[in-house]
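Please, does this match?
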Amino acid sequence: MTKRYRIKDIAQMAGVSAGTVDRVIHNRGDVSPESRQKVEDTLRKIDYRPNLSLSSIGIKKRYTLVAILPQFTKGEYWEQVEMGIQRAVFEFSNTRLKVRSFYYDQFDLFSCRQAFNKASSLKCDGVLIGATFHDEAMHFTSQFSNRGIPYVFVDTYVNNTRPIAFFGPHSYLSGYVEAKLLLHIIEPGRDIAIFQACRIGNESSTQTISRKYGFMSYIKEHSPETKILFGQYYNSDIPASYEKMDRFFAENRNIGGAVVFNSRAYIVGSYLRDRNIRNIRLIGCGTIEPNVTLLKEGYISCLIAERPEYQGYMGVKTLLEYLLYNKQGEVANYTPIDIIIPENVDFYLEAK
């Protein structure tokens, strides 16, 4: 069990007064550099984590956080991220916290730019970002850094940026694991299809690029003779997606496995069900309702779950700890790679 340290315990360990410890923890009042160093060294030694719901009582400043997230409909992956954000807002209500959300179409580069432009014009204390496009994220986070505004990434880490934290899956390893799983469940000698969304602006998402790299790395290392093919779908136009897949599968008749690197696996899975195709093994991401339904029906073989609600919750909590106590932990915080199959999906959902 983790020991609970009181202010006077920390003061005794650091050799300073309790008032000095209180001022350091709450980042208020003058403290000599020497005393501050003693307290901070002690806090690191005991891995001190303040209880935000209790220790923030009496804080009078209102904190405004901005969340920049992909648009979603009910039951989708990003709704679960936002549920985590709202849970944190409720749990830490004593901090007088307000979150302003800006949404963009994750399949439209220009929509992403518009959302970042609106968010960057707002005065705020911290930013939580669900990034899709690498260059846009780099450009706008540099503006936040120049203004001294801390930011956290969820779901996707963007290289060459300086967030105070990231919460989400290790995209490369997720792709690597997906390839390993798929090769073990398809018939030998069959081809594999990677399905990607058609995007306005013609730029793949940052996470898709990284997952694909991990996927291809495993194939190259363990089954270089396996042929990889690339298919496409539309996020919101199912009839057009079906037409594309009709042509794709008609031209490529040796496909034994398929993968979708995001939570839209249900689009391909629904196609397989509606066309009564049962000899193609499909892997996707996210335990959203349509994916789970197709998993149970056998049209999706397994799912990689990424704990999106946890990501949103921890993103807000980390920003608050930084703003209130100047506390910063590890930057990269990877969620487990949960492999969900029909036999364990109900247990997983109950435990969430």
Notes: The chain has a mean pLDDT of 90. The chain has three domains: 7-48, 63-168+308-336, 171-305. Residues 24 and 77 are 39 Å apart (CA to CA).
